[in-house]
Amino acid sequence: MPTPSKVALSRRRHSAMGCNEMRSWFEVEVALPPALADAVCNRMFELGSTGLELEEGADSVLVRAYFPTDSSEHPAQELGEYLRALRADHSVVRWRAVNEEQWADSWKQWFQPIAVGRHLWITPPWHEHSPPGRVTLTIEPGMAFGTGHHASTVGCLELIEEVLATGRIAQALDLGTGSGILAIAMAKLGVPEIRASDIDPIALGVARDNVARNGVQAAVTVESTWELGQGIYDLVAANLYRNALEELAERLATVVRQPGHLVCAGFFDGDVAAVIDAYASYGFAPERHWQRDEWAALWLRRG
């Protein structure tokens, strides 16, 4: 029997956390046929999930989702109705309450170092070995998206490597930085000035810690905003989700230099055409389409 594997996602993060407040969540576990996992994950995000973990077995997928306990609506009923609509109401569903410390510590049980692309080695701080010839990114994900294990993050990192191979990138923006992994990678691969922005205070704290942990404070500025301003960037990286990317197309067109590059991810392969169309009228053309495990990433070139 194949060894189960785990993947973690955090597409939408809850941001109303006080500095001294221990938050809690409802954790829901759903055992599903693999063919239904993507649809159920999307529905859980729509219902307000702050993060997901997927554990893949031989003939089923265990989806573990987290919902804030202070949410105005408990998602149990809507989730049950959705499973029935998929004819998956026989799926095993379990609920329990977990606190912030339990949620954060669960990462350490399975977050292992991995090689990404041609140059990168992503490792948590509790692993010390780094192979020769690799650029090491030491990432403590905490409660922010961006461990380097999920396909959308891998796609962004590999496309960023390809963009940097085409020539010098002087200024870059990491929009929705999460753990800071994309900004840190750009800095360690030679980009001298990167702005990393997010609106989630949890992510901002994690990103700042990771920037310091990797010694790239001189290159990376972490900011608590999504206001793009009038800065002009040679490269923008945006690992978000389809709707956000489509809504941001006009604004991003004002800050990406001509010639310049946009690397984006956080959507399924079936959404690629829609994302390309959203940016085509602003002078962006697809340079590279990356795909893995139903997830996609795009390198769009402008000018």
Indicate the low-confidence ranges by residue numbers. Answer: 1-21
Largest sheet, in brief, is: 7 strands, mixed
Task: Using the CA coordinates, give the radius of gyration.
Answer: 19 Å
Helix and strand pattern: EEHEEHEHEEEHEHEHEEHHEHEE
Descriptive key words:
single chain, 303 residues, alpha/beta, Alpha-Beta Plaits, Rossmann fold, 7-stranded mixed β-sheet, 5-stranded antiparallel β-sheet, 9 helices, 15 strands, disordered N terminus
Mind explaining what this structure looks like?
This protein has 303 residues and is an alpha/beta fold. It has two domains: 5-107, 2-Layer Sandwich (Alpha-Beta Plaits); 111-302, Vaccinia Virus protein VP39 (Rossmann fold). Helix content is 27%, strand content 32%. It is built from nine helices and 15 strands. It has helices spanning 37-46, 76-85, 100-106, 151-165, 181-188, 201-213, 242-247, 249-253, 272-280; strands spanning 5-9, 24-32, 51-56, 61-68, 92-99, 114-116, 120-123, 135-138, 171-175, 193-197, 220-223, 233-239, 256-268, 284-292, 295-302. A seven-stranded mixed sheet has the order 11-10-9-12-13-15-14, sandwiched between helices. A five-stranded antiparallel sheet has the order 1-3-4-2-5. Helix 4 runs parallel beside helix 5. It is globular and about 50 Å long. 40% of the residues are buried. Residues 1-21 have low confidence and may be disordered.
